[in-house]
Amino acid sequence: MTDSNNREPEENKKIRQLEKFYRENEGKPMTTDESVKISDDENTLSAGDRGPQLLEDFIYREKLSHFDRERIPERNVHARGYGAHGIFECYESQADLTDAHFLQEAGRKTPTFVRFSQVAGSRGANETLRDVRGFATKFYTEEGNFDLVGNNIPIFFIQDGIKFPDLIHALKPEPNNEIPQGQTAHDTFWDFIGSNEESAAMMMWIMSDRTIPRSFRMIQGFGVHTFRLVNKEGVSHFCKFHWRPTLGMHSLIWDESQKIGGADPDFHRRDLWENIEKGNFPEYELGIQVIREDQEFDFDFDILDATKLWPEELIPLKKIGKMTLNKNVENVFAETEQVALHPGNIVRGIDFTNDPLLQGRLFSYADTQFYRVGSNFKQIPINCPIHTAHNNHRDGAARYVIDKGQVAYHQNYLADNTPYTVPGDKGGFVTYPSLVEGKKVRKTAPSFEDHFSQAKLFWNSMSDVEKSHILQAFSFELGKVKTPEVRERVIRNIAHISRPLAVSVAEQVGVPAPPEDIQESDVTASSPALSMKNTIFSPDTLKVGVIIDEQYDSNALEAARASWKKAGLEPVFVSSKLGTLKGTGGDTISVDDTFLTGSPLLYDGLFVVGGPYATRDFHFMANQFIVDQFNHYKPIGGIDEGAEWIKEIHLQDRPGVLTSKSPNEGFYKAFVNAMAKQRFWDR
Ligand code: HDD
């Protein structure tokens, strides 16, 4: 099987398994579901030309009744998402830490399926809204499925799963008017945040640029919880899982994210789908942070508290493998919508801890899949393991595995007591025998009570630009809150983290400064790993909008294109109309976007070539694109007429704006470097 570029995807057992379920309809006769050939699919059977329709029309009935059942309940969070298949490759054996089969050997490859998502919006929500992004991975290992159901933020809003319905009810559109769609900028959400100090650190993270990512290909992922790795000898270590994109972590700016919602509400799925189709396969390295059992109480935070991260400067991140997403789905409903991820899906060598949020999740996910996908959801092709499951589970709606034989119970004589259980020393799953003691209680552990130290650590770690974006984000979000008391309560929580920030936000949203007696956290440490400023910067796969008209300078364009190709930059040719343009050398290019169908919002940088016969309208539209691009701090290059137009509006020589009437290699190199830098905040 090949992808649309005729490249052979890497050996992938899961895809081989799915292929057995593919149905090719092209070129085939149309039949009913019972395989009766259909002679007319457009007219219902009626009594006479104008007569009533007949109930006996099984073709009509089957078509409509199937249509009537096409939708299943959408996920009540993370409803809008997009998936892709991939391969995970282990860098080196982790056998000293874990017995997990997929981590035993350097070079071992494991098929994966990833679903990226946004939390709040319904299935049709605009994709660039400010929101946490889900990053959920199913590893189809040789020894069963392991699901790492994470987000692009390393911590969470709450500490105990029992509060999850409250959080989500506050976050979702308000129930009396179902407004607003997919966003946090409303009263109930901020009421929840202001009323729950444990959300303070997460509040800072969601106001940062991480919640308006540039691309799913450029987000980090986190398992969030503390898991256990258990080796063959039964020795356990605590562990956190991270995904790191090799393209670095990049974001939109607020103005862009709002407007892209109009220009392309499918911005993220389009980006992922197109890049995988083109062979620009996104890659993410899997990292682990590990601490020994005896270090459990060595930190000034509780390692079981999901509102806390493990600073990398304290507990370094070790990269142990890489996942490459190299195949789009064949059918979004069958694969992405029906995939059932569940943090409770673990394999031998990995185990849970007593993190109360994780424990809460262990119930909710399987439960929601039974409701959403049905009692046999684990048999659906995208969910089933690569090796056949054998057990005594039977029946239920839509069961399509046909279990042979007389016996469906354990402890039997008739089938020699099979399927048989496998002892731990022969590869069976054994739960890590962690020590449990104490009285049954309903209360928060005292070690979970510090809510502001890590929020302050995060704030201390931000660059000036990041800090200004956080201030802007709070000003927008709280500015949309109608109830002044709700705004005030949030500002009090901010004051525990940074008084100056709280005062500035209060000023912006028209409420009094927080009371003087609020104690600001005295944490002075920072963690450089938390700042997006310290990410990887690369021009690879970034889009350059090229504004170009008839009789463009062929030589200059050829040189520019050669430099872009070398750097992995992808030109998108923009002109006044679709079709083909001719250059001075007689060569042609075909236009990808017009000023109408394209938008400066959709390109990471702009390169203005123009042409000697450009009309006033063309010139005017080019200027609009240049100004928008400039306002979004993105790189701009200009040659020929393009260089003149940029000069006319006095933008030449501003940071990240490069123009030349006689471009040479140095100029093209400088433009590529500017593209890699991505934003010029000092404009
Ligand atoms: Fe959750 C879906 C991530 C806490 C209950 N969650 C869901 C998805 C992701 C996360 C990525 C979408 C999976 C997919 O693509 O199908 N959730 C998280 C993270 C959490 C978290 C990183 C905190 C560390 N979630 C959480 C709690 C509960 C849930 C505490 C309930 C106790 N989450 C659900 C759910 C969903 C879900 C209601 C909705 C659809 C689904 O499970 O499959 O059960």
Textual characterization of the structure:
The structure is a single chain. The chain starts with 12 loop residues before the first helix and ends in a 6-residue tail after the last helix. The protein has helices at residues 13-19, 58-68, 164-171, 187-195, 200-206, 254-263, 267-278, 333-337, 356-372, 453-461, 464-479, 484-497, 499-508, 554-567, 616-631, 640-648, 665-677; strands spanning 80-90, 109-118, 133-141, 144-151, 221-222, 227-230, 236-245, 283-292, 318-328, 350-351, 543-548, 570-575, 580-582, 588-590, 593-594, 605-610, 636-639, 657-660. The strands form three sheets. Strands 1, 2, 3, 4, 5, 6, 7, 8, 9 and 10 form a ten-stranded antiparallel sheet that branches. Helix 5 runs parallel beside helix 10. The protein is globular and about 90 Å long. It contains 17 helices and 18 strands. With 683 residues, it is α/β, with parallel strands linked by helices. Residues 1-9 have low confidence and may be disordered. Residues 75-78, 81, 115, 117, 134, 136, 149-151, 156, 161, 164, 224-225, 306, 339, 341, 357, 360-361, 364-365, 368 line the site of CIS-heme D hydroxychlorin gamma-spirolactone.
Summarize the model shown.
The protein has 683 residues and is an alpha/beta fold. It is built from 17 helices and 18 strands. It catalyses: 2 H2O2 = O2 + 2 H2O.
Please supply descriptive tags for the structure shown above:
about 675 residues; alpha/beta; 6-stranded parallel sheet; 18 strands; about 25% helix; binds CIS-heme D hydroxychlorin gamma-spirolactone; metal-binding; Catalase_core
